[in-house]
Structure formats: structure tokens, C-alpha cells
Records
---
Amino acid sequence: MPVVTALDTLRQRRSIRAFLPTPVADEQLFDLLRIARQAPSGANLQPGEFIAVRGAARERLGERLTQAWRDGEPAREDYSYFPQPMPKLLRRRQVAAAQALYGAIGVGREDRAGRDAQFARNFRFFDAPVALIVTIDRRVGTGCYMDLGMALYGLMLAAEAQGLASCAIGAMASWPDLIRAELGLDDDTAIVCGMAIGHADPDAPVNRTVTAREPLESFFRVVG
């Protein structure tokens, strides 16, 4: 059996959007979360919380989020993610990523129904056995989002190293008031994203999505 190194894990990780129904044991999930907490954190504040949503609560949350999206309810995110307006360079990357995703599943640009059906799967956590809502106390400094981001990446890498797959779900942050109401969270709890974890479906076309990464010269330079 080949040895998988840390570098292999970094290179292999992908956002997976179709999962097998194979369950993930609680103890394995707990182990992944403990590993994620090893991420660097300024002053060791360790910001953020991970909430597993299960059973009827998960079904109800997914239905309500889907309905809010289909009804065109305005998104009121707790934090700004996409720049407004979107710079042309970033817009080109966004479009290329969408083309890679919808191209993998054979959904054309004009196929509104097909694109909507795929997008709606965000609110079902792509049917992964583990569905997490990730939150942070809105009173923390913005640097704490960096700390939480490192913990999120640690979680995804830990899952990859243990033969699992994951996908961070930004769409979950679009209607934070709805999520707070459904999960009984207070107003100081900001909704950051969702997270799906489970065993990847090897036969799902969507999991063959490949997005390009920028070449080194586009994001690295030497001064002096």
C-alpha cells in the first residue's frame, strides 16, 4: 500500500459535491475537529464553533434555505465575502470556476434549470453524512477570521488524510438570520459557512471538476 505524505494530501484535496451514504463515525469526526484545532491562532484565541446539524433539524434547515433562495429573499450576510463591484480579474476566475463545475456535469450556460438544481444542492450539504455549520462570535476582530480559516483548512486536510472528502459551503452564509432562528443561536453568533464531510462518490461527474490555480508568478514577487 503506497504511503501518502502530507504533500500528497495537500495536492490531492478537492472540493467534493457528491457523497456516498456511508456514515462517518462520531469518534472519527471528533478526531478531525481536534486536529483542526491544532491550527495556528493569534494569542491562542481559537475562535469559531462547529455545529453538527442532524435529523429533522437538518431537513428543516435545508428546506427553509432552499425556499428562501427560490423565493429570491435578499441575502444579508454577516460579513462581506465577494467585493462589490467584482474586479475583472477576479470575475474571470469566478466564471472559469463555474464553467469547470457545470462543464463537468454537462450543464450548459443557458440551462437555467440544471444550474439551479445543482446550486440548490448546497442547502442539502450535497447529501454528505456530516453537515456542519461554522460560526464565529461577531465581536471578535477580523483577524480571527484568518485563524478560523486555517482551522477550516486543517479540518479539510485531516479529512483528506483519513480517506474522507469535504466541501466548504459559502452559500450557507447567505441567510444567517434564518440559520440562527433554526438552530437557536443568539445575535452575536455570525454564520461563516457550511461544511460537508463524507466519502466521495467516485462515479459522480461533479467530482471530476478541476479548477485552475494561478501560476506562481501571478502571486509571488521578490523585493530587494
---
Amino acid sequence: MTARGSASDSGAGSRSRMADWGEGENLLNEDPHFPSPTGASGGKMWAICDPTRLPHRIIVLFFMCFLGFGSYFCYDNPAALQTQVIQDMKLSTAWFMELYAWYSWPNVVLCFVGGFLLDRVFGIRWGTVIFSLFVLLGQIIFACGALFNYFWLMAVGRFVFGIGGESLAVAQNTYAVNWFKGKELNLVFGLQLSMARLGSTANMNIMGSIYDKIEIARNSTGPVTLGIVLMIAATTCLLSLICALVLGCLDRRAEKILNKAEGKTGEVIKLKDVKNFPLELWLIFIICVGYYVAIFPFIGLGQVFFIEKFDFSPTEARLINSIVYIISAPASPVLGFLVDKTGKHVLWVMCAVVLTLTAHIMLAFTFWNPWIAMSVLGVSYSLLACALWPMVAFVVPEYQLGTAYGFMQSIQNLGLALISMAAGSILDSRGYLFLEVFFCACICIALIGVVLLYFVDNLKGGDLNLSASGWTRRLKSSSPQSE
């Protein structure tokens, strides 16, 4: 995501791993420890109102999944409307990519303080509402910048949007842990990630059509038409805000009924912990940055690439540019389950990086049907997200997880901001072939990082590349009962 891929993935990795090792209750089954406030004979209707019962938690999960829909839908609005934004606002590609850079800049810092704000300042409920408001306000400012033909105002809108976007993902993960901290947490995170990818896919495939319809209705193109289309997209952010309000009410009600404290992230950022990070973690950071900077900036520029090189129609180009998200939606939960069952995280990451490099080489140096390369890219992107982010929990103690993930996302956003600007400049001056070579070089850096991680991990005992059965034996041998 850019950060859009990482926020949900990082929460899923750390919290699902801790949940599997912990003593969390199975929240999708009936919980015998909490007596139902409605009584045993409440019936199906009462079960919907009972926060200890499955029907009620399904309702909570529904709003939880749609909480980030608007943010993910609007994040790639520029990619879905690349041609229209560049033409209507009279931009170079470098200036166009500034829209992605301005989203990333605030998250270089906010990844460190988002969890703190949720824990210590706003609380999960008000924090979620506030971050949803930032997302909605940012999209409205972005649309107004197009309406009034002020590019600087569009950049301000993306900056405001970025303030809320990543922090909203943190809030979404915190709600998931608070409500589903048992065996189903991996499934819940997978469903949330699938819904996020659904939002990205919908954006890629319908925004161009909406622009065409508004253009026909107004019988003109230009900034006003673009602004109207972006304002329509803002309605999805309003949906996210409504979900945040409903979730807040449901969570407050459950807190009163079950007499429990408001959910916390449990992660406090401590910059002094950075000096104690092991070498393996720094290599994971390098892999993360080298990989994601070759994914999201490429998607941001992909539509025109497929039109120019493969002579696709705009509709076909939008569809193939979204194939990474289309595949990721169903593949992420499946691949996450596969990685959980097999272990071997380093090898899975290596496979993902090699497949991604292969896909970029095909796109750069062949005229093969790009559906092949983009499908490979979609599978490898999903696989890397499932295998890379959980490894952080293997190399740092639990009290440093918040700092480690915050630092990882901050470095990722810094890399995305810089590479987005560089990619736009390269495309303006050298063209798409040179840009693809540049992305291949970034992936090669990630590949070098994976190889080094493999050898460093082996020298230290091979914990990161243990099989699932190996991890089970390791945990049993280190438990107090085995001593």
C-alpha cells in the first residue's frame, strides 16, 4: 500500500502471532465465561443484541471491515484518473506523483504517534472517529483543489488525507484485537485486508467510468469535471465515518455490559529502543522498502503504461492495473493460512521477491500479454505481505513491537515519498523502459536483503526460517512445563 498495504498487514502480523501464542478466548464461539445479559431463552433477536454472542460479533465485523473502505477507495483515485488528472490540471508526471508523496510525508512521523494517540489521548472510539474525519476532510479538500484548479490545494488535501489514512488502519486493527482476540484473529485480519483490496479494486475500475459520465452530462472536460468526480468519491469516506460512529456506539455498549476497559493497542513507541534493534530487523526494513517502492508507485503510473506500450483501451488499462488488488483480496487470507501452516517465512519472502522481479522483467523487456505478469505480481504481493510483516514479532521482544512496526512503516513511507517523486521525474525524462529498470533495481535491493537475512538467520539458529512444526517444538521446549 505504499503504506496502504502495510498498515493492515503489520497489525495482522504482530497481533495475530501474539494472539495465537496467548490465552485469548475463542470469540466466534459462545463464551461460557460471560453470562448472556439477555438470558438463555433470549432467542435469535436477543442474540443479535448480545455482545457475547456470535450474531452480534458478526455485525461488529461488518462495520469493522467497511471502516477502511473509503480510505482505500480514495487513496488510488489519482492512479484511476491518471490521464484525466494530468490533462485537466496540466501537470507533468513528476507533479502528478507528488500527490502520492504528500500522502506519505505525514506518515513518516505519524506511524510513531498514531498508537500513542489512540492509547493515551483520544481512546480507540474517539480516535477512530477523528481519523475518519481527517480522511473525509482530506478527500473534500482534494476535490475542491480540482474544482477551483489549484494544484497546491489538491496537495494539501492529500496531506490531510494521509494524516487520517494510516492511523485509521491502526484503529481498525485495534478494534479487531479487542473483539476477536482468539483463534479467529487471522481470519478477521484477512477479511479486513480483503475488504481494503475490494475498495482499491472498485476505485480502479469505476472512477474512469464516472468521469466519462460526468463529462457527457456536462459536455465538457476540465478541472470542474475532475472535482465533481473526486467529490463523488468522498461519499465512500462518509461511509467510513458512519462505520466509525456505529462501531464506537457498539463498543461503548459492550464495555458497559461486560464491564471491561476500553481497548488499547498495548504498544507504546520508545525511540530509545531503536539502538537495540538486531541486524535481522534492519534487513527486514531494507526488504520492506525495496519491495514496496516497486509496487505502489508502479500502480500509480500503470494505467498510461498499459495504454502506451500494449495499446490497451482506458477501460482495459484500468482493469489490468487493478489486478494486483483483485488477486490480493481472496489470496491474502489463503496465503496467510498457508504461511501459518508451513512456517519457512524467509523462503516465502524470497519466493515473493523473485516472482515480483520476474513480473517486472516481463513488463519491461517483453510484449507478452501483461495479464501474466500482473497476475504473478498480485500473488507475490499477497505472499510477501503474509510472510514479511509477522517476522518482526520473531526478532524483537513484545515490548518493542510498537516501536519496531512504527519505525518500519515510517521508513516505508519515507521511501515511498522519495521514490514516488523520483519515478515521476524518471518517466518524464527517460520513459517507461528506464522506469521499469529502476523498479527492477529496487527489487534487486530487496532480494539482496532477503539473501543476507537468510544467512544471518542461519548463523543465529534459523528461527525465522523454522517450519511450523519446528516452532511448535521450540515453544514446547521453552515453556515452563518442559523444564
---
Amino acid sequence: MAANGASCEQPQKRAGPKDKHNGKSTDLLLRDRRQKDKEERLSLVLWRRPVDTLHYFLLETLVKLKEWTFELWHRRGTVFVFLLLCFLFSITYSTDGSHQTYVQYLEKKFLWCAYWVGLGILSSVGLGTGLHTFLLYLGPHIASVTLAAYECGSIDFPEPPYPDQIICPKDGGLEDSISIFSIMSKVRLEACMWGAGTAIGELPPYFMARAARQSGTDPDDEDYEEFEEMLEQAEGAQDFVTRAKLGVQHMVQKVGFFGILACASIPNPLFDLAGITCGHFLVPFWTFFGATLIGKAIIKMHIQKLFVIITFSKHIVEQMVSLIGSVPTIGPSLQKPFSQYLEAQKNKLHHAGKSGPADENWLSWVFEKVVLVMVCYFVISIINSMAQSYAKRLQQLRHSEEKSK
């Protein structure tokens, strides 16, 4: 019996290292396969494989529409209440009466707020790959209001001043009566709505990571995989960006509400993974969203507003134009179009709709082309991303079929 027992124990001792070695080999094979799949998906872009990319994009669009349809059907009670409210509002909107004044005011405010909230969502959606709407829309809007306030000597021009044309009121005030705080109050609604939109854009990664942690399975998302790899490489990380991201993660995890608030309250490009971090560590929803909303829509936006308003104050702009002219060789040639552009904008403030082709110069032309290029790049990135998402579906289906055989 003893001999048999010894003979039974001996193979078990030999099997330990062997199983460990096989486990390592399996992990390496899985990692290599995932890396190859990832490289195959990343090659699916419009400038390399345009036909396949567009084909996969259309198929992914159909899949998403099907998923959303089933989701709406499961929530048909909520959808019914929403449609009922829309029906009642449409009746109120189309019925004549004294209430139309309030309806039109609410409609104007709602569309104005929805416009900026939508731009904010576009800015933060996709974990840093969204459209930079602050540089394209909100920043120029604050700058135009600032220049108009100093030129008109008043902030009583029509609301909203954008995208409607800003016209100085006939009974303009004095330039000395304009202050930074009065301009900040003029653009507060737009800035806060844009900041609220950026906070809303952080929610999808949060819910994705939270659901993945609670279910115990890896979600179908590249950004979550990047987050997991970052956590695995935490020890001995030498890269500054990696260490900075880990610092943000540790602050969010340990400090909680005030850590999230601190990270969201400053212009912080490393905040992209905050939603995944909070979802991964099961931070309560209102702790995460409340701190993010206060930080982005109130604190951070006032910092950004203040920076733009100071930068485009009248005396600062004049100093900038004079400094451009002092640049050797190319200074005078650059100073002239800047001066012409500012003069054209001032003329528009005093004369509604009387700006002619002479007011156009290469600065406005360049800005329009930059906006067009960035919007096109954003659309192309969405097509590529959805095509790669469908390719990942096919890869997972293939792997599941291989396991079942």
C-alpha cells in the first residue's frame, strides 16, 4: 500500500511544474493571438482597405440598430411615456394662445442648451479621440463675445449671440464699464452646458467597466484592455505618461469624491481613463458623476473661460498684434492680415450684414479649412472604429467556434 501510495504521489509532484509550464505556454499563445487579432483590426482603415472598411462599417451599423431596437423594446414603458410627453408638447406647441410666448422662449433655450451639451459630448466621447469642440466652437464663441463686449462697450447684444451674428446695440455703453466678470456671466450658460456635456461623455466607459467588474468577464472594449495592461505594468513603470495615469488612478481610488473632483477640475488630458477607473473599482455612480459634473461644468469651465477672456481682451490683442509685427522678416507680412481680420470683425459689429468680400482674408479661410479637416477626420475615425468593432465580433465568433470543436 505504501509503495502504491508513493507511486501515486510521485507523478503528482512531477505534474506541478509541467502544468505551470503549460499554463505559461497557453498564456503566451493567447497573448500572441490577441496581439495578431489586434494588428489585423487596426489595419482595417479607410486609407488601407477602403472597401472592407465601408462594408464592415455598414454591417456594424445594422448590428447596432438591431441592438438598440431590442433595448428600446425591453424599455417600452419608458419609451411610451416619452412619446406621450412629446405628443402633449407638440399639441401645446401647435395650439395658439398666450402661452406661445413662454413656449418659444423655452424652445429657444432648450435648443441652445442642447447644442452646447451635444458639442460637449462629442468632445469627450471616445476617450480622447472625440472632436475638439472647445477649440472649434466654444473657444471662438467666448473670444467673439469678448471682442464684441470691448468694441460695443456693452454686453446687451442679442442673446444668444452665437451662431446668430453679434450686432452692437444702438445705445452702446462705455468700454470702461466692461469687466472680465461681466463677460464671464454673458457666456456662463454655454460654457456650463458644454462642460456638462463633457461630463456626460465620461459615462459610457464608466458603465462598461462597472458591468465588466460585476460580471467578472472582460468587456469587448480596447480601452478596458489598455487599462488592464496599465495596471499590470504599474510596478517599475518608467514612462511618464504611464506613471501620470497611474497617479490619477490612485488618487481617484483612494481619495474618492474629492480626488475625482480635483482631477476633473483642471484641464487634464489624463482624465480620459477616469470613467474606466471608477467603474473598475465600483465607485458609486453619483460619487463619480457628481464630482465629474461639478469639476468639468463649474470649476474647470470657469478656469478656461477666464483664460480665453484674458487672452482676447482688447489691450492683450493689441499687444499681440504689435508683437507679431516686431518679428524679423516675416513680422510685417503676418501683422497685416491679422489687423485686417480684426478690423473686419469690428465693422461687422456695427453694420449688420454689410460685410463684403474685401473683409475676407486668408485667416478666416484657413480656420474654415481647419474646421472642415477636423470634422472629416472625426467622421473617418468613427467609420474606422465601427468597422474594427465588427471585425472584432467576427474574430470572437471564430474563436468560439474553434473552442466548440
---
Amino acid sequence: MAGTPGVPSGFEEFYRRDHRRILLFVRKARGAEWGDAWDAVQAGFVKALERWDRIKDPSTWIRTTVLREFDAQRRRPREDFQRALRAQSGEQPDFTAQWDLKEETRQVYDCLTRLPRRQAEVMAWTFDGYKPGEIARILSEANPDAPTNPAAVRASLALARRRLRESLLDEGGTT
């Protein structure tokens, strides 16, 4: 079975397999609204397509790139977003209807939005299966002026877990 003409081998499968995961990752790491996460993820996948033959670790690369895209979106003037929305030809999907997220998952995501940025980001990487050493390397590569070590990641993770537990208990959830 042939792939889409002009699309590098493996990219379509990667997109289908990871698109949803990356949207959820941005939500966890930055507390992103679905539409903002969608924009950042789409921009990230476009960049991935353009560089596909040079990307060694697509899963890590796309997460790092999408977080940068999201952060760049947040820094742009609001008018840029409004202009882009007017120019948009189609509706964005209704994520909550499309994905049946459990109530517990929604509660955790809501609590993640209240964590300090670094703690939320460390939790998002952890939820996606990354270990503290890997997270420290990724964060250090993303911000060489402020390198991160595994001990700092573990400390952020411990604080985040405690705050999440407290927050969930305050909301009447169970842990």
C-alpha cells in the first residue's frame, strides 16, 4: 500500500498515532485550551513534515517543537489570532465530543492548569512515559541557558504530585 505522494515514509503513521497524544500533552504541559493546542500541534507537525528525514527521535522532537509553538502563540498579539480565525476556512473539531475523556481525566487536566509551569511540564512529560533523566536532557536542550538536572526534575515531580493530590482532594476527587 503506497503512502500519500510527497509525504515521507512513516510520517502519516506517526501523525495518525501521535496527533491526539500531542494535543493532550500540550493541554497537560501548558493548560492549553483545545483550539490553541490544535494550532500549536498543527504548526509542529508541519515543521516535522518539512524536516522528517533529519528527525532522530520524532516523539520527543514533536513535543518540544509544539511547546515552543504554543509559547510563541501566547506571545503574539491577540489580533494575529483573530485575523487567523477569520481567514480559517473550516471549523476546528469539538475535542470534548470527539474524545470521550473520563471525568477523572478532565479533573486532572484542570488541576494541571493550576500548577506552576515547570511542574505541569514535568508532569506532562512523565504522563507520556519519559523518565526524569530524559526530561532533564530534553529541558536542558530546549533551554541551554538554564540547564536542568534529573534531581531538579524529580523535585518538581514530587511537588507537582503533592499539589495534584491536594487539589483533587479539595475538589472532592479520590486519589
